[in-house]
Amino acid sequence: MRKRLVTTSPFLTGLKLLAILPPVGIGWLIYLSRWQWLALLKHPRQFGRHDPLLGFIVLLMGVTTLNLNHRDYRSVALSVLMLFVLGNLWLLCRESTQSIAWHELRKFVIQFGLYIAISGFAFHWLNQVLTLPTWLKFLLGDLLWGYAANQNRLFGSAYNPNDACCLLLIALGLLLTQLSHESVHPFTRWPLANWCFVGLLCVGIYQTKSRTGLMIMIAILMMTAYQLCRHHRLLVTTILITSSLIIWHVFPRSASTVTALQSRLTIWHNSFAVFKQAPFLGVTYFGFARRYLQLTGTYVPHAHDILLMLLASFGILGGVGFIYLVLSSGWHLTKYWHQYRTPNLRYFMMTLPIILAYGLTDFVLSSMQVLIIILLIIACWHHEQQLSTNSLIAATSHR
């Protein structure tokens, strides 16, 4: 027990700092992961088909290194360093799931979402009352990354409203999955409080004013309503149809929807043009913004779509590798659900599609906070697969 506390306490501390003091938490987790690559070299069997995400990261590092032929040394070096840090963080998250229970991690992610919502309202009030120093706002995650027009949107400690929305959606998905099924580890012991937290997360998502996020939130709520009201689905359908008639009137930034869609389509079209400039090796992760600027005269940090960003940054191999990861993960998730139907699988069947759906309209992996949380969830799914496989092997050997 003592060994478990020694190995997990620094990691849990890093996760808490990730929510409250993001730069400190990110730095601490990167520091904890610094020697993970050595541990991998000592146990090379962990690499390969048993860990496709690690193989994908190594593939991206190899593709990026080949870009040295283009003599863009700075972008190549920064991109390789970023992928190296990403690989170490993945190994750290994967190791942490061996000693930290899923319900503990799940509770943390929900608390993280609640903190984003609460801190978003608190920071908005504080900024009207007094002027906080820039260094303090940066430490708290309250220094906006993005356009000045986004300042009236909630983002709490996540720096950006779209990143905050993604984290809020993940927290909402986990909490609703827990409430729609009996759980031995409830978020709180008071059912009414749980539903109040659901309401707070929904208000937070609405206040981020992310149109994609709100649509995903509505889809999640509809799924949960059908699960909880199995015997009254006709009534639920009638209520949902009636409610949909007034949704447009309260939809955030509805006046600029057409303009925003046209802007996003333009970014996607230009990002694909960047990919066509270097279809085999890409332009590297940190080389994307420079190539986009050279092509269009406009600065855009990323492609606002995970597949297009991977294609443009890492070429065909990056895009094909990502598609393989998505399809294989979906196939394994469906397979394990039909075979085992363990309660934890419900959480992954809810959160992984949320992450993918939001990634189709925005590249939220550019946020280290979002990236670490997603790595943690994928690591838990990886651990669940291992447990299910081991239990099947053990059951077969006893026959």
TrEMBL record:
Record keyword Cell membrane present: no
Protein name as catalogued: Membrane protein
TM segment ranges: 12-32, 53-70, 76-93, 105-126, 159-177, 189-206, 234-251, 271-293, 305-327, 347-378
Taxonomy, superkingdom: Bacteria
Pfam families given in the database record: Wzy_C (PF04932)
Localization of this protein: Membrane
Key words, A-Z: Ligase, Membrane, Transmembrane, Transmembrane helix
Any GO CC annotation of this UniProt entry: membrane
Any one GO molecular-function label of the UniProt entry: ligase activity
Residues annotated as domain O-antigen ligase-related: 198-323
Bilayer topology: Multi-pass membrane protein
Record bears the keyword rRNA-binding: no
